[in-house]
Automatic annotation (TrEMBL):
Stored SUPFAM superfamilies: S-adenosyl-L-methionine-dependent methyltransferases (SSF53335)
GO-annotated molecular function: sterol 24-C-methyltransferase activity
Domain SAM-dependent methyltransferase Erg6/SMT-type as annotated: residue spans: 54-325
Family statement drawn from the similarity comment of this UniProt entry: Belongs to the class I-like SAM-binding methyltransferase superfamily. Erg6/SMT family.
Pfam family, one: Methyltransf_11
Its EC number(s): 2.1.1.41
Keyword Lipid metabolism tagged: yes
Record protein name field: sterol 24-C-methyltransferase
One Gene Ontology CC term in the entry: endoplasmic reticulum
Biological process annotations from GO: methylation; sterol biosynthetic process
Keywords noted in UniProt: Lipid biosynthesis, Lipid metabolism, Methyltransferase, S-adenosyl-L-methionine, Steroid biosynthesis, Steroid metabolism, Sterol biosynthesis, Sterol metabolism, Transferase
PROSITE patterns: SAM_MT_ERG6_SMT
InterPro entries referenced in this protein's UniProt entry, alphabetically: Erg6_SMT_methyltransf, Methyltransf_11, MeTrfase_SMT, SAM-dependent_MTases_sf
Length: 325
């Protein structure tokens, strides 16, 4: 299929971009990135435009090829991709210790797959915060179809400046979303502000491991490929994320690189010999979206730590951060 043919398919699925504007949106998006002369500072300065262009282009494909939750998951042998994704969401809910009736915030919620699952699993009310208009409209439709409108809602906003008063939520989580933030500290600080004191934040974050060598050209190329393939302004080291959490006021209770001991590698769905979801990777846009994921499984970017902050002390096994004071 030609590039324009594939992109016709994207708008045909109900994406946000008019068919005639898709190619120009791809061009504008690509210019943010290293391979097209883009620079990190530009990506950070225009992060909302870059992220929105990316998700306007890819959301329909993600939903078609991946499902309603746009994240990876550690996976057991014999477990389907969908099962592993749900288990990963349940694990997060359990580690957060969610109680029925609590008010929870999902930061960077996509089209609401995790929101619906976690709300149903824990009998909580989950607000999904997202900067992307199209994803929210799609998420509202899916909430209506699932019959969860009373407990799941959406707010269109930037997680760098959230429209909520201080101390609004009993728990906050973010699944593979805060990697889009231009500044980890600024984002975590905002999460800390809206979380009630003593309550917990849990996140699945994308990070570089310590094996990343900034002086190695091949490593830098792989990093740039992941950035363009996933709409990222930069990729931070795990240590930088942990430090930013502490600076933002969280006590880090548990953190783990979930990639290292997953019995089935997280990147397996992108392996052409295993991926069967409509041969997504074989399409031009599929490659545009996924081309870096296999290489990212290489030696330096396999870290997707589960991290938690702000619980009372004593819980040593939860992927969350506890808000002190
Ligand atoms: C990889 S998707 C993950 C979505 C969702 N957490 C899931 O697992 O299905 C990243 C999400 O973060 C959102 N996002 C990125 N930057 C954002 C920002 N500045 N403010 C709010 N949402 C943002 C994107 O629109 C997208 O929905």
């Amino acid at each position: 299929m030609s590039k324009s043919g594939v992109l016709d398919f994207a708008s045909g699925l109900g994406g946000n971009i008019d068919k005639n504007e898709v190619l120009s949106a791809v061009d504008q998006y690509e210019k943010y990135h290293v391979f097209y002369g883009g620079e990190e500072e530009e990506r950070k300065a225009h992060y909302s435009d870059m992220v929105n262009k990316f998700y306007d282009l890819v959301t329909s494909f993600y939903e078609f090829g991946w499902g309603e939750s746009f994240h990876f998951a550690p996976r057991w042998k014999g477990e389907s991709l969908r099962e592993s994704i749900k288990r990963h969401e349940h694990f997060l809910a359990l580690q957060l210790g969610l109680k029925p009736g609590q008010k929870v915030l999902d930061v960077g919620c996509g089209i609401g797959g995790p929101q619906r699952e976690i709300s149903k699993f824990s009998s909580t009310s989950v607000t999904g915060l997202n900067i992307n208009e199209y994803q929210i409209s799609r998420g509202k439709e899916l909430n209506r179809i699932a019959g969860v409108e009373k407990t799941c809602n959406f707010v269109k906003a930037d997680f760098m400046k959230m429209p909520f008063p201080d101390n609004s939520f009993d728990a906050v989580y973010a699944i593979e979303a805060t990697c889009h933030a231009p500044d980890a500290y600024g984002c975590y600080k905002e999460i800390h502000r809206v979380l009630k004191p003593g309550q917990c934040f849990a996140a699945y974050e994308w990070c570089l491991t310590d094996s990343f060598d900034p002086n190695n050209q091949e490593h830098q190329k792989l990093k740039a490929e992941i950035e363009i393939g996933d709409g990222l302004p930069d990729i931070r080291l795990t240590g930088e994320c942990l430090e930013a959490l502490k600076q933002a006021g969280f006590e880090v209770i548990w953190e783990k690189d979930l990639a290292v001991d997953s019995p089935v590698p997280w990147y397996l769905p992108f392996d052409p010999s295993h991926f069967s979801l409509s041969s997504f990777h074989l399409t031009t846009v599929g490659r545009f979206i996924t081309r870096n994921m296999l290489i990212s499984a290489d030696f330096f970017v396999s870290s997707r730590p589960g991290i938690c902050g702000t619980c009372p002390k004593g819980k040593s096994t939860c992927p969350k951060f506890s808000r002190a004071g």
